[in-house]
Design a protein that fits this description.
The structure holds two protein chains of two kinds. Chain A is α+β, with helices and mostly antiparallel strands. Chain A is built from two helices and four strands. In chain A, the strands form two sheets. Chain A has a two-stranded antiparallel ribbon with strand order 1-4. A two-stranded antiparallel ribbon of chain A has the order 2-3. The N and C termini of chain A lie close together (8 Å). In chain B, 38% of the residues lie in helices and 18% in strands. Chain B is built from ten helices and eight strands. The radius of gyration of chain B is 18 Å and the shape is globular. Chain B starts with a helix and ends with a strand. The chains are: A alpha+beta, B alpha/beta. At the A-B interface, strand 1, helix 1, helix 2 and strand 4 of A face helix 1, strand 1, helix 2, helix 8 and helix 10 of B.
């Protein structure tokens, strides 16, 4: 059976850096920026270890602002 | 496999619901309101009711709800959302009508409207966001504030001899003959969010089938009012709020 690979696209300008997606991710993919902020002044979420993403969409589901789009593909 | 090969429309598994507008929400970071808004938008979309839904927005943090979900909205005066919903539903029985209210709006100022609308069995759904505090106006004590909980207006904690007991509106609603479905949910984990979505769908379907009134309470966080980070607020809610406000269905006729 092929491995499942996932990827996330984050609307960083919409993100408020609440950290809920980082905590919800079971694969430790996401992190919050420490030195960068968006135009509202919030640190934002980014895929620090995207190679681990399994496309489970937990981050997208818990995001209160709907910033995250999740993709999933089975490796052939 | 490259990132470009994964990020293709056919591989998409989750995105912001189409009924949610692109305008940024004014809620504080990590606010439960955003998650509940998303669930409502998803359910309306799945039911194909986008053109036939009327939401009644309250006074409180969710006062701007009409800016975020692309359906018809009415703005009610403080606490009067169930009265307005009654009028909407009676005039347009084929519409899906719901109110969206916080605990200050529903459990304090609009207690009478809420209880009577539920008791009359109006075919509406009341979405009740309970974060045990008045969020928008500076975090003062609400009727739902927990015993001993510190807020802006009870800095030494809620005292039952002075302030009485926290009001369990959902338990009251469950005793009324007019209600069809009364449940208490939360949106703190992925599993809870999936369950909450099913509850919203069930309530909306009940109201369209004319089974009676429906109340869904969401035990929620107010990280700004509680002076906690969103993650700590969720933890505090699980440890304290769930002990007093027990999750689950109270009534399903």
């Amino acid at each position: 059976m092929g491995k499942i690979r996932g990827a996330v696209v984050i609307d960083t300008e919409r993100c408020k850096g609440c950290n809920l997606c980082v905590v919800a991710c079971p694969a430790g993919v996401l992190g919050l920026t420490t030195k960068e902020v968006n135009h509202k002044g919030y640190p934002f979420s980014y895929a620090a270890h995207e190679e681990n993403c399994i496309g489970c969409a937990s981050c997208g589901i818990v995001c209160p602002d709907g910033c995250i789009t999740v993709y999933r593909k089975k490796e052939d | 496999m490259t990132r470009e090969e994964i990020i293709r429309p056919e591989n998409e598994v989750y995105r912001k619901p189409a009924l949610m507008n692109d305008v940024g929400m004014h809620y504080c970071p990590g606010c439960s309101h955003g998650v509940v808004h998303k669930l409502i938008a998803e359910v309306i979309e799945e039911m194909g009711m986008a053109e036939k839904t009327i939401g009644i927005s309250p006074v409180g943090c969710a006062v701007f709800a009409y800016r975020y979900i692309d359906i018809d909205w009415q703005e009610a005066a403080h606490g009067r959302a169930p009265a307005l919903a009654t009028a909407c539903k009676r005039l347009w029985p084929d519409r899906l009508v719901f109110t969206y209210q916080g605990d200050g709006d529903l459990a304090c100022i609009g207690t009478a409207e809420t209880i009577h609308a539920l008791n009359r069995g109006e075919n509406i759904t009341i979405i009740f966001i309970n974060n045990a505090i008045y969020g928008m106006t500076g975090g003062q004590m609400a009727p739902t504030t927990l015993i001993g909980m510190k807020t802006a207006t009870c800095p030494y904690g809620r005292d039952i001899h002075l302030h009485g007991f926290p009001l369990k509106m959902t338990e009251i609603a469950a005793t009324l003959d007019g209600t069809a479905y009364v449940t208490r949910q939360s949106v703190d984990t992925v599993a809870a969010i999936r369950k909450a979505k099913k509850a919203i769908r069930h309530a909306f379907e009940n109201s369209m089938q004319g089974k009676g009134s429906n109340l869904i309470e969401f035990v929620s966080t107010c990280s700004s009012g509680w002076k906690k980070s969103p993650v700590e607020a969720n933890k505090w809610m699980q440890e304290h709020m769930f002990q007093y406000y027990h999750l689950g269905d109270l009534k399903d006729k």
